[in-house]
Amino acid sequence: TIAEHYLTAQAKSYVSSLLGPGVSIASVASWADDYRYTSIRRFSAPLHYIGTSSVESSTGSKFAYGSQMRKTTLQTQKVNDNRYTIAHRKEFLEFLIHFLGDITQPLHNEAEAVGGNQISVLWEGDETNLHSVWDTQMVEKDAKGSSAAVIKSFSKKMIKAIDHGAYASEKATWVSCSNIETASACALSWAQDANKINCAYVFKSDETDKELSGAYYEGAKPYIELQLATGGYRLGTWINKLAAAE
Question: Distance between CA 54 and CA 169 in Å, rounded?
């Protein structure tokens, strides 16, 4: 994955010690989604939703700021706390990996229509909602699938753009806030960055009941790739900081 490419040797050992030998970041990235649907783990479901605290931005988007700050701060504080068992710290890292991905998806930082979940749209003729399209369908179309091999190939494309291509000159800005002691402030900054895309593109026009797999997807693709690259690079940097602080 993108994040793993940027891990230091120390961080790779750190991840292995918590997740287990040979367990990749990519393989646990969606763990928190599966976890919340188990009968004894339903308590975690609200953690995935935007907070009730929101503020109207200058462009009309409703920025949801509470939950993203709390989730990132809480898991960052816990993952290196030796008072917890390794099994619990493993879960904290898995949550953190998932939530740092969530925070780069624009609609995870948006209160309007419950982050787009209440906006019905079409994807290749099938009914779905705007949030799902940004979470899954457009990403998979851009990557040309969702298999491990496809993800690996797409990640290489993103890494090339980060190291030597379109993102080389801006990647430092993605981690300008990367102090794990100020996780709340960093999470707020990252969420605000992602939310700007809601104003710039996601809600630029009313897409209710419209087909989004054509022109809308093409317009969204640059934002999708930017956020995937940003999230991966930022996650790698954050884990490096955690490993160094352990």
Answer: 32
pLDDT in tens, 191-220: 889 999 999 999 999 999 999 999 999 999
pTM: 0.88
- Amino acid code (one letter) for 66: G
Which helix (H) or strand (E) segment holds residue 87: the answer is: helix 86-102
Angle at 28 (CA atoms; ends 38, 96), nearest 5 degrees = 90
What b/e sequence results for 209-234 when a residue is b if at least 16 CB atoms lie within 10 Å of its CB, and e otherwise?
Answer: eeebbeebbeebeebbbbbbbbbbbb
The pair of structure tokens assigned to 218 is 């093409």
CA distance 8 to 221: 30
At residue 184, the 3 state secondary structure works out as helix
Angle, CA of 193, 195 and 200, to the nearest 5°: 100
Give the CA distances from residue 42 to residues 29, 32, 34, 108, 151, in Å, rounded to whole numbers and listed in that order.
18, 11, 10, 19, 29
Sign of the torsion angle spanned by Cα atoms 136, 140, 143, 147: positive
Query: Per DSSP, what are the bridge partners of residue 121?
Result: 128
CA distance 16 to 18: 5
Q: Can you say whether the dihedral through the CA atoms of 161, 166, 171, 174 is positive or negative? A: negative
SS3 81: coil
pLDDT band at 63 (very low <50, low <70, confident <90, very high): low
